[in-house]
Design brief:
The complex is a heterodimer of chains A (113) and B (117). Helices cover 0% and strands 57% of the residues of chain A. Chain A is mostly beta strands. In chain A, strands 2, 4, 5, 6, 9, 10 and 11 form a seven-stranded mixed sheet that branches. Chain B has no helices and ten strands. Classes of the chains: A mainly beta (113), B mainly beta (117).
């Protein structure tokens, strides 16, 4: 099973809202990732968790707050977003961080009004 | 290929023909490469990978070729089908990416494959 699940599939929020994106994998992977993808562009890395610890934050604004409650779950908490944050947010996982295939979830389509 | 602005390079092929999608990478230290397929509204799907100690790897209907001399990667799809229509991304992985942070993927700009029935 190489499935990564993400909820919700679609999310519309106002600039003053607080919402969370959720990601889950049961492949025993110890590395999990958040990416942001704008239309017709490749995914851009936001955060990397390795063994439930944040190892990389790619200079992402503080209105995005990641959380890794356990080895199977990854959350992305959203607060005071801007319309330009509207994008497809992708979660991925791999066995470990180094040289391993990353498997992606279906993404959450986020629209900020 | 290279994209300009919001326009993805597009490859249009007839159903049943073979497709070749190309990718140039920039980091000579990259040692692991992956091809992903992304259909509209979905996440990237793993197709095939290759490590730098190989120059060719075959899967089901797909072949990846790696030319480290010119830093070029290609994906060949045999007998292309309408279901192959998607955007294809190459990705490279290097121990030197992200200022020393190990093992993170750098994606190419993507190529849109359109298959005509």
């Amino acid at each position: 099973d190489t499935e990564v699940t993400q909820t919700p599939k679609h999310l519309v929020m106002g600039m003053t809202n607080k919402k969370s994106l959720k990601c889950e994998q049961h492949m025993g992977h110890r590395a999990m990732y958040w990416y942001k993808q704008k239309a017709k562009k490749p995914p851009e890395l936001m955060f990397v968790y390795s063994y439930e610890k944040l190892s990389i934050n790619e200079s992402v604004p503080s209105r995005f707050s990641p959380e890794c409650p356990n080895s199977s779950l990854l959350n992305l908490h959203l607060h005071a977003l801007q319309p330009e944050d509207s994008a497809l947010y992708l979660c991925a996982s791999s066995q470990v961080v180094r040289e391993d295939t990353q498997y992606f979830g279906p993404g959450t389509r986020l629209t900020v009004l | 290929g290279e994209s300009v602005g919001l326009h993805l390079p597009t490859l249009s092929v007839q159903e049943g023909d073979n497709s070749i999608i190309n990718c140039a990478y920039s980091n000579s230290a990259s040692d692991y490469f992956i091809w992903y397929k992304q259909e509209s509204g979905k996440g990237p799907q793993f197709i095939i990978d290759i490590r730098s100690n190989m120059d060719k790897r075959q899967g089901q209907r797909v072949t990846v070729l790696l030319n480290k001399t010119v830093k070029h990667l290609s994906l060949q799809i045999a007998a292309t089908q309408p279901g192959d229509s998607a955007v294809y991304f190459c990705a490279e992985n290097s121990l030197m990416n992200y200022g020393g942070s190990q093992g993170n993927l750098i994606f190419g700009k993507g190529t849109k494959l359109s298959v005509k029935p």
